[in-house]
Design goal:
Length: about 290
């Protein structure tokens, strides 16, 4: 069968669900993965034929069920690095790459970053933040915490895949009793977190491919306590950040002002709310200063 014919099938089968450009994106990603044929190569050889098309049509059937293509392939790129993903972890977003970039700029501006720097990623999921930081800061000591045993398995694979050393911790940040005494006594230069921040009432605005596939544990918080994780992590940071240590969060775009007030209440200084490339309030930073 010609690849062009398969492309036509993709548009026919998926046209009611996705836009034309998105369907083409799926198709070109899949032919490069399964047949090592790029978009340009197909344009130069429009009659290119393949004998075995079971895999790509199998992927098509999963796309019709609105499974994310990242889960279908089991891998993706984040911050220029390869990552394994499955339905036990959130699919890393471009906004989180912006958070990583911000953390790195701040870290590299301090001399300790090239010597003895401690960084903690809370709610690591796939490990995308921790691994990306470890790759760019090879002399820093990186810790990554998550409540999910299955997520940590993926994060550990991603650390190995990218040849970085990370200390992974299985614990519930909402229950400090699950933290070991040794860990409780550690002091960090940076704590970063992309915790659950989508309110239950916002589900109605989300696509089925997210709702039906990505782990709700990592996505949603109760409407009445939208800042639950931020409050707990900020409290934890008061005792576990060094003086002048930095706290970074990815946040709900609608709760930027609430986050500013939360950090102010806990006496963080030099607070900065930052927008993502889509002009949405997406990240916030505060500095701990011992009185």
């Amino acid at each position: 069968m010609r690849l062009k014919d398969i492309q036509d099938i993709f548009h026919k089968e998926l046209g009611a669900i996705y836009g034309k450009e998105e369907i083409d994106s799926f198709f070109f990603i899949l032919i490069e993965t399964y047949y090592a044929v790029t978009r340009m190569q197909l344009a130069l050889r429009p009659d290119y034929k393949v004998a075995n098309y079971d895999a790509i049509l199998g992927a098509l059937s999963l796309l019709k069920k609105e499974q994310p293509i990242q889960y279908i392939l089991g891998n993706m790129e984040f911050y220029g690095l390869p990552f394994k993903v499955n339905n036990h972890v959130l699919i890393p977003r471009p906004e989180t790459e912006e958070l990583v970039e911000w953390v790195l700029k701040q870290a590299m501006g301090k001399q300790q970053a090239v010597n003895n720097y401690n960084i903690l990623d809370i709610g690591t999921g796939s490990g995308c933040i921790a691994v990306s930081l470890a790759k760019s800061l090879p002399k820093a000591k990186i810790y990554a915490l998550d409540i999910s045993k299955e997520a940590l398995k993926i994060a550990e694979q991603n650390a190995k895949l990218n040849d970085v050393a990370i200390e992974f911790i299985e614990a519930d940040i909402l229950d400090t009793e699950t933290l070991s005494p040794d860990f409780k006594n550690l002091k960090f230069d940076i704590i970063v977190s992309n915790p659950p921040y989508v309110r239950e009432r916002e589900k109605a605005f989300m696509r089925p491919n997210v709702i039906d596939n990505e782990p709700h544990l990592a996505l949603f918080v109760k409407d009445e306590k939208p800042l639950l994780f931020y409050e707990v992590i900020t409290q934890f940071s008061l005792g576990n950040l060094k003086d002048k240590g930095l706290l970074f969060f990815e946040i709900n775009e609608y709760l930027g002002n609430d986050m500013i007030q939360l950090l102010k209440r806990h006496n963080f200084n030099n607070i900065k709310l930052k927008q993502d490339i889509f002009k949405k309030d997406r990240m916030i930073k505060g500095e701990k200063t011992n009185e």
